[in-house]
Design brief:
Elements lengths: L2 H20 L13 E7 L12 E8 L2 H9 L3 E4 L12 E7 L8 H11 E12 L5 H15 L15 H8 L2 E14 L2 H10 L15 H12 L8 E13 L3
Parallel strand pairs: 1-2, 1-4, 2-3, 4-5
Antiparallel strand pairs: 5-7, 6-7
Helix pairs in contact: 1-6, 3-5, 4-7
């Protein structure tokens, strides 16, 4: 598997889906997609979502300064800041959308509440984030190798949202008409190195603020072996990717 060949098309399709869901008509049976005045791309990242949003003006926010600078070079009004403490006045946007960012925040309930506060009456929220059993095979290999070698496990991958908890989180944040959908697919890898290459190609490595201790080459060889031990009869390991779609409204 080549990293760009796997990650880039999937990211583009996911951005198209998030934008389409955001622009769906507000009323039951509405035919025409909705267009918004001002939208916020919450966690612009590589910039897949912003140009697809159905809005007259898009503002971008990202915790990483290089991503915000890249968004500005692309012509967006972009700032650097925390996603759970966005530096904007309440009721500033008609649409708040996010793709592949909210699973990395320290405080997801706070981020959702902040997104709700940013919406004007009648505004919409749409987000997609990794969750559920995403990268379960990698998590299992890391856990087993570190527990066996050191008697404890360091946090190496950030926690994932359980889809069953998502509706309550949206309600707690104050969203009206909360909707949660789960999309899942499976990628198959021959070796851990191929998976790591794809993750790095998509800018998906190293989300934790503090790095756990380096365990050495022997440890990582053991992780690779435990990953390979999960292979099927064709010598490939099934790696699950789960995307949780969140949708809510500000009410009127």
């Amino acid at each position: 598997l080549a990293g760009a060949a796997v990650i880039a098309p999937r990211a583009a399709r996911l951005a198209d889906e998030v934008a389409a869901r955001a622009g769906e008509g507000a009323g039951e049976g509405a035919q025409a997609p909705r267009r918004f005045g001002c939208a916020l791309d919450l966690g612009v990242g590589a910039g897949w979502l912003a140009p697809r949003l159905p809005a007259d003006r898009v503002v971008a926010l990202d915790p990483a300064a290089p991503c915000a600078r890249a968004a500005r070079r692309a012509g967006l009004a972009a700032v650097t800041g925390r996603l759970d403490r966005p530096p904007f006045a309440p009721a500033s946007f008609d649409l708040v959308a996010s793709m592949g960012a909210l699973d990395t925040v320290n405080d997801l309930p706070a981020a959702l509440a902040a997104a709700r506060a940013l919406l004007r009456p009648g505004g919409r929220f749409q987000a997609a984030l990794a969750g559920g059993e995403t990268l379960l095979a990698l998590r299992r290999a890391l856990f087993e190798a570190e527990e066996a070698a050191f008697g404890g496990v360091a946090p190496r991958l950030h926690p994932m949202l359980d889809p069953a908890q998502a509706p309550a989180l949206l309600q707690r944040a104050g969203f009206a008409d909360p909707v949660v959908d789960v999309e899942q697919w499976t990628l198959r890898y021959r070796a851990l190195a191929d998976l790591v290459r794809d993750l790095r190609a998509g800018g998906l490595a190293g989300a934790l603020a503090s790095r756990p201790p380096w365990r050495g080459r022997a440890f990582w060889a053991e992780v690779a072996a435990r990953f390979a031990a999960q292979a099927d009869g064709e010598g490939r390991v099934a790696v699950k990717v789960g995307i949780i779609h969140l949708r809510g409204a500000a009410g009127t």
